[in-house]
Amino acid sequence: MLDSLIFLLAGTLAAATPLLFAAMGEAVVEKAGVLNLSIEGMMAIGAATGFAVTTASGSYIGGFAMAALGSAILSSVFAILVLFFLANQVAAGLAVGILGLGFSVLIGKNHEGQTIKAISDLDMGYLAELPFFGDVLFSHDPMLYVGIGLIFLVWWVLSHTRLGLIIRAVGESPDAASAIGYPVILIRFLAILFGGAMAGLGGAYLTLSYTPLWAEGLVAGRGWIVVALVVFGMWRPLRIAVGAYLFGAVSLLELFIQGQSYSIPSQLLSALPYIITIVILVIMSRNPRLIRLNHPASLGQSWHRSA
Length: 307
Known about the structure:
Layout: H1 2-31, H2 39-57, H3 60-84, H4 89-107, H5 133-137, H6 142-160, H7 162-172, H8 174-179, H9 184-210, H10 222-232, H11 237-259, H12 266-285, H13 288-294
């Protein structure tokens, strides 16, 4: 039983990491007032690019770097559409997301079904030898700890720095932010690039660590879960992180329950994380006042400088 608990807790940290990267990036994008629904495609691009580059070069650092760059380039397409051509953010996000999924298939075509050695765990010395806690907390790869650090970095920047104040001002009232001299378009553009890069890292984590292989459809709806997590967390990084870890735990219940020999259909267990996500969003939607008090006022609205 103890081994099963260790598996569940340690696995939760790993399962949540791809979501954390993408969700922290999306939180910044939405705080700047832009709704990006192309996360699924950006994660897929990151997953395919990271796997292809790492397979070819043998460098995990290169794989993660190119995954971030590839997804950032895709996010720039979305940024140009919504910031300069004033395209509808929902429609543009869906279109760019589909584009990303298509390109990921093209990038990973020659690697379909291939596996790769997962990125090595970080050497934590005697900490990894601690009973229970060593296996749960101190026996993971470096990118998992980078993901945890990202939570607090994004929280600190958004809540305690001038940059965070500017991002929030742009998301609340771009007209007022522009009137006092803030470059609204530039800030939103950079926020979108950051969100794309983080989605790319999340996708790369899937293929280079969590499930070290490439297969079409590997992202499996996680991009949509990321969008839901940002709403669930009320655009607050620490709450978003809690939601990501909850989803990670639920996603591992299938293996945990099967290990306990319970006779529950595997199809139901596989769908459980998504069912719970829908239920949570339905419950939250019953209190629209709470959402209105927390979401950026200009979220999803096109903006251009007045003449």
